[in-house]
């Protein structure tokens, strides 16, 4: 319980410090570029591969039912809504948690165990500005971009499987996919990924930098970081979906 309170307090302190523009003067930009490479290009392939197969499975499950109801003109819009609002941002965030978040936690925890953080203090370097802030910024910048690539991959693969198996022309698929609220939903999907990125990066770094003990505690901190990040993603996804999408539907119903 004491460890959780310590992490919660540190979480809020770093969150408040991120609002201060002065921190950008103390950032090591070489370190920031290295972290951008870890989060972005190194995670792109697995993100697109996951989106490709998830969209294939979802298309197989949905398109058949819509064809049975003679509603093939709705296939593109239904799949686009599913990907933009829920599947793409959540799946991309989960991939980043498993690949990047766990790496951040284990890396920082190892630095704590091997007393490298103490060496930074002796050199007069603030570990928050040198280690945590570049990682937080890199995830915030790269997760929305990964989400865009995921969306693009999902729509392309869905149109492909619809054409191959169900003879739905890609022109009609994409004409249906561009529904009225597409751009507004896309903007809200980006907001979702920004919120996810903030919590994933902060939890991963804080769980790593508050590790105490030896190599066993590094593994425990990494596992705890991943589990906590996933729970936060699911909770935040429900809250953001209700606030951004459910209220919007209510507004249109009463207008």
Automatic annotation (TrEMBL):
GO cellular component: ATP-binding cassette (ABC) transporter complex
Keyword Metal-binding: no
Chain segments annotated as transmembrane: 7-24, 44-60, 120-142, 148-168, 189-210, 222-245
Domain of life: Eukaryota
Entry keywords, A to Z: Chloroplast, Membrane, Plastid, Transmembrane, Transmembrane helix, Transport
Main location: membrane
Compartments, record wording: Membrane
GO MF annotation: an example: phospholipid transporter activity
Pfam families: MlaE
Membrane-topology descriptor: Multi-pass membrane protein
Family named by the database record: Belongs to the MlaE permease family.
Name of this protein: ABC transporter permease
Organism classification: Eukaryota, Rhodophyta, Florideophyceae, Rhodymeniophycidae, Ceramiales
């Amino acid at each position: 319980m004491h460890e959780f309170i310590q992490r919660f307090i540190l979480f809020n302190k770093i969150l408040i410090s991120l609002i201060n523009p002065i921190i950008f003067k103390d950032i090591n930009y070489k370190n920031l570029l290295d972290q951008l490479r870890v989060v972005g290009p190194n995670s792109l392939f697995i993100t697109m591969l996951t989106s490709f197969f998830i969209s294939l499975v979802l298309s197989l499950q949905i398109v058949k039912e819509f064809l049975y109801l003679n509603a093939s003109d709705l296939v593109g819009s239904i799949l686009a809504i599913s990907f933009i609002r829920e599947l793409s941002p959540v799946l991309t965030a989960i991939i980043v948690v498993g690949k990047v978040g766990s790496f951040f936690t284990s890396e920082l925890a190892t630095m704590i165990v091997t007393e490298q953080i103490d060496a930074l203090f002796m050199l007069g370097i603030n570990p928050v500005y040198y280690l945590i802030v570049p990682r937080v910024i890199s995830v915030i910048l790269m997760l929305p971009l990964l989400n865009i690539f995921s969306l693009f991959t999902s729509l392309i693969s869905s149109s492909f499987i619809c054409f191959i198996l169900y003879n739905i022309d890609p022109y009609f698929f994409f004409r249906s996919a561009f529904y009225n609220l597409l751009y507004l939903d896309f903007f809200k999907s980006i907001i979702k990924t920004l919120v996810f990125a903030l919590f994933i990066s902060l939890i991963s770094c804080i769980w790593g930098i508050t590790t105490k003990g030896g190599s066993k505690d590094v593994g425990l901190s990494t596992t705890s970081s991943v589990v906590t990040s996933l729970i936060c993603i699911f909770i935040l996804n429900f809250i953001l979906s209700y606030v951004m999408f459910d209220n919007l539907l209510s507004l249109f119903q009463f207008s």
